[in-house]
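Structure ticket #2291
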Amino acid sequence: MLNLKHQSLENSYNKTILTIKSCKTKEQLESASRMVKNFKLLYKKIDYPKTLLYNLNEILNKQHTLCQL
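Resolution: structure written out below.
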């Protein structure tokens, strides 16, 4: 069961990254921000590695910068 949780976490993390990187507009980035919040709420229950959230925030911030150019 633990392996299944790890795989689910990895799949959700990778999908969230792909979603963030595909954003081209401010509205899309707002949706991606909500996705990151949901990821945090969902995986907080299983004590996810905090570095994952930090990485998602960094990728989101980078995408914000790219969309404003």
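Closing remark: The CA atoms of residues 8 and 44 lie 14 Å apart.
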